[in-house]
Design brief:
Number of domains: 1
Structural class: alpha/beta
CATH topology: Rossmann fold
Shape: globular
Number of helices: 6
Order of helices and strands: HEHEHHEEHEHEE
Distance between the termini: 39 Å
Strand content: 15-25%
CATH superfamily: Vaccinia Virus protein VP39
Strand order of the largest sheet: 3-2-1-4-5-7-6
Number of strands: 7
Radius of gyration: 17 Å
Helix content: 25-40%
Oligomer: single chain
Bound molecules: S-adenosylmethionine
Largest sheet: 7 strands, mixed
Length: about 220
């Protein structure tokens, strides 16, 4: 799995985030080298980020990020018809955003290491209901070829455990050709039954992988 560095602007679009959504504490789960936590924190939001790769430390991540970004670019070139470039304008601008975002992430990781926790789903080292909103981009569903239904259920329930208000997951299709994930409907029903949450898959104002234009939104009812 490549280290990727989506930007704050991409997160705002992928998760259709408003300023009100970022009130309280937000967790970026499987954050990789995304600059979302850095940029949102600089703007006054309270954000934590988790990823197992953070155990490697900033120097190791800085050493591998340029190669990972080039490998991702080559993958996009080799399968150009699977991607929609409208949101970015051009492949060159896409790559600039990745580099800018990764640079911002690395600077913030060095300046504020306490914001970045080494942790891998389906376990998060956080107390029950300790954050308001959990965001998770490009791990669940994207990697459903490697992680099965039971793993996804455990991962979603873990994110629901630590969230007071909501969990949002993007995208909802497999990596590559972007086929739908066959167990999504069953998973939604199970999560609703276990947590009492309401789930929905609304469209979002972002599409890069063709057909990946919806998020899973899990609204928890706790304390209401
Ligand atoms: C494709 S990257 C996405 C990074 C970031 N969310 C973004 O959109 O740019 C997937 C990330 O998931 C992380 N990851 C892999 N296995 C994980 C797990 N079990 N729990 C949490 N994160 C994991 C990887 O280290 C990687 O940084």
């Amino acid at each position: 799995m490549l280290l990727t560095s989506r930007s704050h602007a991409e997160y705002r679009a992928m998760f259709d985030l408003s300023d009100a959504d970022l009130a309280g504490v937000t967790l970026d789960c499987a954050a990789g080298a995304s600059s979302f936590a850095a940029v949102a924190s600089a703007a006054g939001a309270r954000v934590l980020a988790t990823d197992p790769l953070y155990a490697q430390g900033a120097d190791a991540l800085a050493a591998r990020l340029p190669d990972d970004l080039v490998r991702a670019q080559e993958m996009h070139r080799a399968a150009a018809d699977r991607f929609v470039w409208d949101w970015y304008g051009s492949p060159a601008r896409y790559q600039e955003i990745r580099v800018e975002s990764g640079t911002r992430f690395l600077a913030d990781l060095r300046r504020a290491p306490g914001r970045y926790l080494a942790a891998g789903l389906p376990y998060l080292p956080l107390a029950d209901r300790s954050v308001d909103l959990v965001l998770c981009s490009h791990l669940l569903f994207t990697w459903a070829g490697e992680h099965d239904h039971a793993w996804h259920r455990a991962a979603v329930l873990e994110m629901c455990r630590v969230a007071r208000r909501e969990v949002r997951i993007f995208p909802l299709v497999h990596l590559g050709p972007g086929e739908p994930v066959e167990f999504l409907g069953r998973l939604r029903a199970e999560v609703e039954q276990v947590t009492g949450a309401r789930t929905a898959c609304p469209p979002v104002p972002y599409e890069f992988q063709r057909g990946a234009d919806r998020m899973l939104r899990i609204r928890l009812h706790r304390g209401q």
